[in-house]
Design brief:
The chain has 426 residues and is an alpha/beta fold. It contains 11 helices and 12 strands. The strands form 2 sheets. The protein has a 10-stranded mixed beta sheet, sandwiched between helices. It has a two-stranded antiparallel ribbon with strand order 5-6. Helix 6 crosses helix 7. It is globular. The structure holds alpha-D-glucopyranuronic acid. The site of alpha-D-glucopyranuronic acid has 8 residues, from helix 8.
Length: 426
């Protein structure tokens, strides 16, 4: 008996291991264009009842319909602006960065009470200007203090992923100051007359699968959580909107020219924030990939099934219904791009970032073009995927840069040129 049951256990183990191995073998990312399943994209200009959108008034209705669809099936629905939102400026240094910048830090509390969630917003504004400045707003991955070695930046005490320089036991140490500065060319941004505002995304919601028990979820969620409840991307996007609430009150910032930007998972976040909130004058997606700028239906590189498996806390539960069933989605990501219309939007891809499907990121821009045109603007001027390092700046901007998954000075230069093209003198 014992031998038998032991044998049974052994056999079960072997079978499980084989199954796991087969599973592992089964899922290889596809990078072969010829293996893309046949798909038809839903039309951004056809309402759910089949009516064609023919003018800007009808687009307003379609826009609301699309937002509701993305809320229901992809990102989940976030709560509205909280009544108890508070801003406390705890730093105002007029001569930061060797006199080049005015530095401000503001605590944004999302609710009342000592334990309520909130975030620190760090701002650098050019010290030379006398009028309110256009400002880039973005979340960061490692804490505000990692954006620049400036010792005046408050060191984050929030949970942070291990593996980043200077992070020990999920906490930032002094050694992590400036660790991400390469991705924040503050001198360039200031010299060209722009401000930078940034907050740590983990202040809003720590980026791990915690059962939605911490961050803003602990404060605002209902129990039970519905299948369309907001998840982490929607929470981070909500945080960007709360930062915008603050920026609107800051006399040194031009609130009509706040540009929301993000890289990778935070690029997905910036796109969703920009879609929901028309106060953002421009939207920038840097290498955002699956669930961001890339078309889900191409199922190349990262797929809906894979992202839901790897990051079960990013999207609402309903999104898992589309694992390996991308064609059933009532939306696709070209509609997310279209939700920025007629505001300028920029999508950037990188050559070695195949996981994010660079071509699929471009195709989303191309298929958002009819909405931009309907609204009387240029959309995406390129009809074919542009060559490497040949940016296209229509009302929709796009580039496919040499190199890997990253934010580089080249990317920033394009964003600033693009902002100048659309807003200089306005
Ligand atoms: C992973 C994930 C991507 C995401 C990226 C990032 O690679 O699969 O979807 O964009 O992390 O945020 O860095």
């Amino acid at each position: 008996m014992i031998v038998h049951s032991r044998l049974g256990i052994t056999l079960t183990l072997v079978c499980t291991m084989n199954a796991a191995h087969a599973e592992e073998k089964k899922w290889e990312p596809n990078y072969d264009e010829s293996k893309i399943p046949a798909y038809t994209l839903p039309d951004p200009l056809v309402m759910d009842d089949g009516t064609t959108v023919e003018d800007p008034q009808q687009w307003v209705k379609r826009r609301n319909e699309l937002i509701a669809l993305f809320e229901q099936h992809v990102y989940g629905k976030a709560p509205r602006k909280p009544d108890d939102l508070r801003f406390k400026q705890f730093d105002h240094t007029p001569d930061a960065l060797d006199g080049k910048a005015v530095r401000k830090q503001i605590r944004i509390d999302f609710a009342k009470g000592a334990d309520a969630p909130g975030m620190d917003l760090l701002m650098y504004l050019p010290s030379k200007t006398t009028k309110p400045v256009p400002t880039f707003l973005l979340l960061n991955f490692q804490g505000n203090h990692a954006v620049n070695p400036d010792p005046g930046i408050r060191l984050s005490t929030s949970w942070v992923r291990d593996g980043y320089p200077g992070v020990e036991n999920n906490h930032s140490t002094e050694a992590s100051r400036g660790a991400a500065s390469r991705r924040f060319p503050i001198d360039m941004i200031l010299e060209r007359g722009y401000g930078l505002a940034t907050a740590y995304y983990g202040d809003i919601d720590p980026d791990y699968d915690d059962g939605f028990n911490n961050g803003v979820h602990a404060q605002f969620d209902t129990d039970p959580r519905p299948d369309n409840a907001w998840a982490s991307i929607a929470a981070w996007a909500w945080g960007l909107r709360r930062a915008m609430d603050y920026l609107e009150t800051d006399n040194d910032v031009d609130p009509k020219h706040v540009f929301v930007m993000g890289h990778s998972r935070l690029g997905k976040t910036a796109l969703w924030a920009g879609a929901l909130d028309e106060r953002f004058a421009m939207v920038i997606s840097n290498n955002s990939g699956c669930g961001g700028a890339a078309l889900c239906r191409r199922a190349i590189g990262e797929t809906v099934g894979k992202i839901n498996q790897l990051f079960p806390h990013w999207f609402c539960k309903n999104f898992t219904r589309y694992n390996e069933r991308e064609n059933d989605l009532p939306v696709d990501q070209h509609m997310l791009i279209a939700l920025a219309a007629p505001r300028p939007i920029y999508v950037a891809s990188a050559e070695k970032d195949r996981w994010a499907d660079p071509k699929g990121e471009f195709l989303s821009c191309l298929h958002a073009d009819p909405v931009y045109r309907l609204l009387g603007t240029t959309g995406m001027p390129a009809k074919r995927w542009p060559a490497l390092d040949e940016p296209v700046h229509g009302r929709i901007g796009y580039h496919y840069r040499t190199g890997g998954h990253d934010v580089t000075d080249y990317d920033w230069q394009q964003y600033i040129d693009f902002a100048e093209k659309h807003f200089q003198g306005k």
